[in-house]
Specification:
Blueprint (H helix, E strand, L loop, with lengths): L5 E5 L2 E10 L2 E10 L2 E7 L7 E7 L2 E10 L6 H13 L2 E7 L5 H17 L5
Parallel strand pairs: 4-7
Antiparallel strand pairs: 1-2, 2-3, 3-4, 5-6, 5-7
């Protein structure tokens, strides 16, 4: 298990990076926290293959969510953004750039994000 962290602050936007080997694949996580929300990129190579956004609504218990760019048949970014928005009550942007070949990888990745949220809530 390898972990790399960086906590830089760029004029109101803080950056937090961490990595972990999950199912024999190194997965990188990049968080950019801003006022009222955060952007989370998850991937193994420097690619922005999709982008989803989610935010709470006063009209529904489940946060609103939409895919801004990417393949609409891949719902990983949209689902993750919605769950993180519900958990953090913030506006959340997610780019999930991992192959959707293994559902257990997605579950382990999400568990790693939850662990990081618990350990370092100030970065989200």
């Amino acid at each position: 298990m390898t972990e790399v962290m960086n906590g830089s602050d760029f004029g109101g936007i803080s950056v937090h990076d961490f990595s972990e080997k999950i199912l024999e694949q190194v997965v990188h996580f990049h968080v950019m926290k801003f006022n009222g929300g955060f952007f989370l990129w998850v991937g193994s190579a420097p690619v922005l293959s999709n982008l989803a956004v989610s935010m709470s609504s006063k009209y529904d218990l489940m946060p609103l969510s939409t895919l801004v760019m990417g393949d609409p048949s891949n719902t990983a970014a949209n689902s993750l953004a919605q769950r993180l928005a519900k958990r953090t009550r913030k506006q959340v942007f997610v780019s999930y750039s991992l192959p959707m070949t293994d559902s257990s990888l997605s579950l382990l990745v999400e568990n790693r994000i939850k662990k990081e949220l618990e350990l370092h809530p100030e970065n989200f």
